[in-house]
User: What shape does this take?
Amino acid sequence: MAAGLAGALAALTACSGGGGGGDKTATTTKPSATASASASASSSAAGAVAGASGKLQGSWITTSGGKIVALVVTGKKAGLFVTGRKAWCQGAAGEESGMQMIHLTCPDGNKDRATGMVDSVDAKGMTVSWSGKTGKETYTKAEGGTLPSALPTKLKQ
Assistant: This one.
């Protein structure tokens, strides 16, 4: 399972490049309805979020309810994956009213981690208070697409 998650992290961090292959000779393309809907959902989740601080950038891992939770922040974009769930959540991360915030939209309607306020962040860890039933979680930074040696567990409130 760890190898699969490490692969998923590598794929997530590689996705931020935005370079797509395909036929470069076409001069016009029509965006699909799916791409437009996805962009709209992502835009509405972003709200008034400004760019995420450098400390938020990267891949973050925690465990919750026996599942691994991977949160990836690249630029202003954020993505979240929970093992055992079919859908990836996506949205924005950055400064909002003087606080570092994360806003996510999940295609399956899950709101457990819809809005998170970053309580603390440094080179090794981050604590986020989520507005949903998840509450407060502590994440460990995953460097270079690899899992940290010890995964944190959900804090008890």
